[in-house]
Amino acid sequence: MGKTELLFSRNMEASIQSTIKEVWGVQNIQHHDKYLGLPSFVGKSRFQSFKAIKDRVWAKLQGWKEKLLSQAGREVLIKAVVQAIPTYTMSCFQLPKGFCKDLEGMFARFWWGQRDQERRLHWLKWSTLCQSKFKGGMGFRDLESFNLALLAKQGWRLLHSHGSLFTAVFKAKYFPNSDFLSSALGSKPSYVWRSIYAAKAVVQAGSLWRIGQGDKIKVRTDH
User: Fold this and answer.
1) 22 with 95, same domain?
2) Looking at the structure, do residues 62 and 119 belong to the same domain, yes or no?
3) Tens digits of per-residue pLDDT, 192-221?
4) Separation between Cα atoms, residue 88 and residue 147, nearest integer Å
């Protein structure tokens, strides 16, 4: 219990808060903290909530710019290091599109050898570099698409990991009488649920039924 903390609503009475703290033997926190590097709460300023990711990417790129790197070296560092930095966050939250573009702009400037405030010509746009090498690109990640793919994995877990605490919590709150594919966004959803729900179309597009008894299949709509 040493790592456990509570955050109470302003509407909860002080006597109830004290009782809960005594039962659990933990303290309440006065501000929104981070857990495993992720923000506990994401407010309206989402750019600010994920600012630490940009700071980490910027610090990495600035350190490498002082070194003489070949084009192959830049490719390895972009793919293996800086594009991996936001991966854990993207598996839980949908990053704003503008935020993804900012990160990709940083990657692109590093790729074309830009230093400090100097401007270098970008001979190809980043979306082209994100294509596979067989199609003339470099195989870099499209962050927005990769973000949705990671969130779709969480949606897949909601469909199949019926015994997990993760599924039990989300099912009880957002789709108690149906499954993930039949769920609705609902009113006042959390940012995590809103993020996973955004990837539902990806799960639907890539899923199909393996026919058993067929009693749960909607013939007109299911793949």
Assistant:
1) no
2) yes
3) 999 999 999 999 998 887 888 888 788 887
4) 10
